[in-house]
Amino acid sequence: MAIKRYFATKDNTISNAFAENLTTRATGSNMGAADILETFVIHGQTSASINATNAEQARTIIEFPINTISSDMAAGIIPNSSGSLKFYLKLFNAPHGNTLPEDFSLDIKMLSQSWNEGTGLDMDNYSDLGASNWEKRSTANVWARTGASYHIGNQYVSSSAAFPTGLENLSVDVSQLVYQWLNSQKNNNGFLIKMPDSIVSGSDSYYTKMFFSRTSEFYFYRPVLEARWNSSRKDNRGNFYISSSMVPASDNLNTLFLYNVVRGQLANIPNLAGDTLSVEIYSGSSAPTGNALQIDDGSNLASVVQGGLLVENGVEQTGIYTASFASTSSLTTIFDVWHTGSGGSRVNFFTGSFNPISIATADHLYDTQYINTITNLQDSYLKGQKPKLRVFARQKNWKPNIYTVATQEVIPDIIEDAYYRLTRTIDNLEIIPFGTGSAVNNFTRMSYDVSGNYFELDTNFLESGYSYGIQFVYYLNGEYREQPEVFKFRIEEEEV
Are 91 and 170 in contact (CB under 8 A)? Predict the structure, then answer.
């Protein structure tokens, strides 16, 4: 699962609005322990709020554990490259009976000063005083700018979040801001979420947009900073395509994996110089014969290519080796030999085989339908488990003969562009959407190898005591096709 959520460590609503008496301002009030976050602009409720300077406002301030994110990057839990990892700020709409604004946007800014959360609750009469608030960031310190000080300049502003109906959740790419914290360009003081200056300086009121806070009783509605990346592995041993002029040169490259499993555990091959291996391919009927065939590593032709330990998230993966190359051979069976040295010092470590596939054209598009199952899905898991789930997919109209069924293992189809989503079954709440499209890093794209598709399910951020459902979508013939099956399981709390 190429998604990790970081919950807010503190949040608060700060406001300069009038209390019900329309006399007292809420500038000293604190709402740090409330289960709601609020953002609004009100004009003309009194003569003292008729212009931009005195407009009544509420803003949200919120902070996330950037140090934890940095540690996870160093440990290889999430990627350490800005090119492969994006961060999304997600706040969830809280329904209410007050006036709901529509057709507006919210700005996300970087706070420039540290602040205390506070313990206030009253969001109606603003009776709970303390810091942080509209004027102060802590008991002894004021904001450099009332209403929370923030960095000025376009480089510090994320893309605005739009709310056409007002009912939408907030979900916005804040990678630009987060990386300034991670790279120590700015101190992490959290985000400020506010109405744009154009609304503050205008005459129309926008009252009131509410989100659930970090203290909400609703687990999946608490604010999160969500890390997303594409962690899918493409092992082409089961779908190795022969080079063709009908596809771009980069698509002719295939990747093979070698898994060094020792007593049930992945382990590095000892005494490898630079953890690299040489890979050659051969023809043969039951074993490699003759001289090594010419292959292309993407830049030139040779009889050997270099393979090495798989690197994911900037960290070498124990016992997993890869090599990428292209081949024009039309042989039915090809053998791949992984070794070190040459001549009398040569040591062979592994010999595999695969059946290359020719890219073929057709005079029509096939309307392929699949029957799917998860072969190793259990009825329940303990919270914190990370099962690797295997997907078996076969064409719906597949009709093997009796001999095939009796004598051969049924090989699943490999779906190259396959994605999953996760919902809570009791209310169909979407926990993880189909992470399709480069804009969101294809973060739920499934891996595949010779045994079919698979993905790792991280149950750490699932709430125990509930059942969940898994669904698939496949990209076929230029469109996403949602599969009909729903695979259910339950998360149990680990006994102490």
Answer: yes
Q: Where do we find the tokens 């102060």?
A: 136
Q: Output the CA–CA distances (angstroms, integers) from residue 155 to 109, 177, 263, 388, 483, in the order listed.
A: 10, 8, 53, 40, 42
Instruction: Please give the pLDDT value at position 94.
Output: 98
Give the mean pLDDT of the chain: 92
Query: Are 324 and 313 spatial neighbours (Cβ–Cβ below 8 Å)?
Result: no
Going by their DSSP bridges, the two strands 380-382 and 487-492 should be labelled as parallel
CB 56 within 8 A of CB 49: yes
User: Identity (one letter) of the amino acid at 287?
Assistant: A
Number of H helices, E strands in the chain: 4, 31
pLDDT at 110 over 70: yes
Please classify residue 434 by burial: count the beta carbons closer than 10 Å to its beta carbon, then call 0-12 exposed, 13-18 middle and 19+ buried. Answer: buried
Q: Where are the beta strands (DSSP E) in 403-484?
A: 418-424, 429-432, 447-449, 452-456, 467-476, 479-482
**Which residue did the predictor score with more confidence, 203 or 62?**
62
Other C-beta atoms lying within 10 Å of the C-beta of residue 140: 8
Give every CB contact of residue 315 below 8 A, 6+ residues apart in sequence.
75, 76
Q: Which residues lie below 8 Å from residue 141, measured CB to CB, with a gap of 6+?
A: 113, 131
Q: Would residue 22 be called left, alpha or beta, if left means φ above 0 and alpha means ψ between -120 and 50 degrees?
A: left
Q: Residue 132: is the preceding peptide bond cis (ω within 30°)?
A: yes
Identify the DSSP state of 410: P
- Per the DSSP assignment, residues forming a β-bridge with 335 are 282, 353
- Residue pair 161/81 in contact (Cβ under 8 Å)? The answer is no
370-492: CATH superfamily: Macroglobulin (MG2) domain (2.60.40.1930)
CA–CA dist 153, 86 (Å, integer)? 22
Q: Closest by alpha carbon to 269, among 228, 319, 204?
A: 319
Is the alpha carbon torsion for 347, 350, 353, 354 positive or negative?
Answer: negative
In which band, very low, low, confident or very high, does the pLDDT at 99 lie, cut at 50, 70 and 90?
A: very high
Nearest to 482 by CA among 469, 494, 464, 496: 469
Entry pTM: 0.91
What is the spatial distance between Cα 176 and Cα 195, in angstroms, rounded to a whole number? 20
Residue 178 near residue 142, CB atoms below 8 Å: no
Q: CA 197, 200, 201, 204 torsion: positive or negative?
A: positive
Q: Burial letters for 462-473: b for 16+ Cβ neighbours within 10 Å, e otherwise?
A: bebebebbbbbb
Q: Which residues have C-beta within 8 Å of that of residue 405, sequence separation ≥ 6?
A: none
